[in-house]
Write a structure and sequence with these properties.
Number of helices: 4
Order of helices and strands: HEEEEHHEH
Radius of gyration: 29 Å
Largest sheet: 5 strands, antiparallel
Number of strands: 5
Length: 215
């Protein structure tokens, strides 16, 4: 029961983490306009994401434009695109693997094999969490470095957007959930020893039992 509870808890955390990775990947709020110095009062806010850039007017209107070329993007944006997509795909694969080996399903009969399949799904989720954390930390480091760089104009400085915080939460859920899935072990009710039964005693034609049964 304890192992089954860990599987359900780990799978729930990993599923939520994978959904948050997809949400973070699609949101345009990776970099947000920094309101500093003369930019305290502005008529528009700029959002920079992996796939598009958006301009939000003070009136509430928003206009978004897709990035024209992948090669024109910075290296951190290119890496973030690739790694977040890989993380999302690994999250879906991990879900399929864990469900196939979960104790509440009958896709696999052997308890030992089911536990190892769940462990493999946990490893996939841990790798998925690491893959999404790398571009997040890289992007945050570049944003902070540019923010404190005096050579960067104030109009070009950005702050950490909501998508990065969502991505960090997703990465934490994936790592914790994957670790719980890796702790799954075969249930104690199943043992590796097979039960052997003694052969039944057969009577001879004259009604007596064979003497070999008593040797």
């Amino acid at each position: 029961m304890v192992s089954a509870g860990l599987e359900i808890l780990g799978l729930s955390l990993c599923a939520i983490g994978s959904l948050l990775v997809m949400v973070s990947c699609g949101l345009p709020m990776w970099k947000v306009t920094a309101f500093i110095e003369a930019n305290i009062v502005v008529a528009q806010t700029i959002w920079d994401g992996l796939w598009m850039s958006c301009v939000v007017q003070s009136t509430g209107q928003m206009q978004c434009k897709m990035h024209d070329s992948v090669l024109a993007l910075s290296h951190d944006l290119q890496a973030a695109r690739a790694l977040t997509i890989i993380s999302s795909v690994m999250g879906v694969l991990g879900l399929m693997v864990v469900v196939a080996g979960a104790q509440c399903t009958n896709c696999i009969r052997a308890e030992y094999v089911k536990a190892r399949v769940v462990n493999a799904g946990g490893v996939l989720y841990i790798i998925s969490g690491v893959f999404v954390m790398v571009p997040l930390c890289w992007m945050a480091n570049n944003i902070i470095a540019d923010f404190y760089n005096p050579q960067v104009p104030a109009s070009k400085k950005r702050e950490i957007g909501a998508a990065l915080y969502i991505g960090w939460a997703a990465s934490a859920l994936l790592l914790i959930g994957g670790a719980l899935l890796c702790c799954s072990c075969p249930s104690s009710g199943s043992s590796g020893y097979s039960v052997k039964y003694a052969p039944t005693k057969r009577a001879t034609p004259n009604g007596d039992y064979d003497k070999r049964n008593y040797v």
